[in-house]
Design brief:
Length: 180
């Protein structure tokens, strides 16, 4: 009988501990943006203008969302690739969006002077969009289809990965074009 009481007591403690962990875990971690899930809608601000953007505004296009920051060396290496991606695939329906996570807008502007962007660049100074996407590395890229579904997630950037990332974007554009 004592073993049964100990067993019930242990199960009760485990249930309480599990409930506490689930309660204290932030929601973006529980419901992270991952492949196959709907991309969160985010309110973002243009770095160069006072215009606001919502990711939902790009619904119907394939979008390549890239989270970056001025202190991130791989981010600097990714900008030539992002410019090329925008140049080569924009007419086929791809929209590249660079989401800056610097708290100081001057840092982002200085970075952009050194590494110009020929794609849409917006700011997420309060970090809500990054939190909703559950960004875990810099840069973090999300390839989103015309229906707003995340089809590919890529963390970090090494120049040798550019070809594979471009192929993934081209395949998604072709796939989506076939379904129209």
């Amino acid at each position: 009988m004592a073993d049964l009481d100990n067993s019930l007591s242990m199960n009760h403690r485990i249930s309480i501990l599990l409930s506490a962990v689930l309660t204290l875990t932030p929601l973006p971690t529980l419901f992270a943006a991952e492949m196959g899930s709907k991309a969160p809608d985010c309110e973002l601000t243009s770095i160069k203008e006072t215009q606001n953007y919502h990711l939902q505004h790009f619904h119907g296009q394939v979008i390549y969302v890239d989270f970056w920051s001025s202190w991130c060396p791989p981010c600097a290496k990714s900008f030539p690739f992002l410019n090329e991606l925008e140049h080569d695939l924009k007419d086929k329906g791809l929209q590249v969006i660079g989401v800056n996570l610097d708290q100081a807008p001057e840092d982002a502007k200085t970075f952009l002077t050194k590494y110009p962007a020929n794609f849409t660049v917006v700011a997420d100074a309060n970090g809500k969009c990054a939190m909703n996407f559950d960004v875990k590395a810099m840069p973090a890229s999300y390839l989103i289809d015309r229906n707003g579904v995340i089809r590919h997630v890529h963390l970090g950037f090494r120049p040798g990965e550019a070809k594979e990332l471009k192929i993934l974007a081209e395949q998604l554009l072709a796939e989506q074009a076939e379904q129209k």
